Amino acid sequence: MKILVTGAAGFIGFHLINRLIARGDEVVGLDVLNDYYDIQLKYNRLAYAGIQKDEIAYGKLVQSALHPNYRFVQTGLEDSAALNELFAAERFDAACNLAAQAGVRYSLVNPRAYIDSNIVGFANLLEACRHNEVKHLAYASSSSVYGLNEQMPFSTQDNVDHPVSLYAASKKSNELMAHTYSHLFGLPTTGLRFFTVYGPWGRPDMALFLFTKAILAGEPIQVFNHGDMIRDFTYIDDIVEGVVRVLDHPPAGNSGWSGLQPDPSSSRAPYKVYNIGNQNPVRLMDFVQAIEAALGRNAVIDFQPIQPGDVPATYADVSDLVKEMNYKPQTSVQDGIQAFIQWYRQYYHA
Fold first, then answer.
1. How distant, in Å, are the alpha carbons of 32, 58, 100, 108, 199 from that of 72?
2. Is the pTM for the entire model greater than 0.85?
3. Active site amino acids
């Protein structure tokens, strides 16, 4: 297939693109390359796939020096004219939207960034897909949409009308917008609710990255909600496996869907939402101990109250993916942490 992957210089986008390149798809990666976190890490991810920093210019398609089936363009989803031009020229079979302003806590200080990227940008992407006969749009949602839900594990059958951050609200909005385009225009769309993704080349603002850096430096780590947190940590390879399987299977619509008892995860239209998680939640303090064991060092822990916009527990019900895509996460937290720390030590010479 010919596939557009947005957020190409991001954590999940980087891994997905390398997987798609390896299996022979023709891939165009798109990223605005903002400085929300260390931009050099983004350039280094691109370089890994043969895209050199000195060749990047806004709006210019850059051919990979390593892979004939990969090109990259620096563009923002907010730039509707550039996006429409790209879609008209390339005629993509499918698109995977991993571009977004990420982070729960940052949405408290810069809400406008989430509206511009996650709402306006996503609307532009939907329009580009609609007018250029894209056969499937898969897009990143988030486990954060579950908000104040307390029923565990989180199911796509649950109501998700009580988000606790603007980031979560923007992701819920994406699901609503996608359904509208599936219903009105027959555009097949699949939303992917990711659960706490971690692994090599990860985001520096995530817990595993922050904890590893602090422990190696002998500095305290901040553990929120006094350590009483549970997360469904999901290794990046398991995430990518789920995304690829979903990309290859656009939804056709649920003929048994009823407005009298509506299933929130599907529709008569070609629309679907899945959880992608490990389905094996881990206590935060057990996660910290696994990091300590992998590093061979003890952490100095600074316990803090829960932060605004955060939730105490996440736990994914992935039964739909198991049943429909034969998907099953393979990586234990211990193995995943070990792989991350091996990468971290090599990358930072730590």
1. 11, 10, 17, 32, 23
2. yes
3. 167
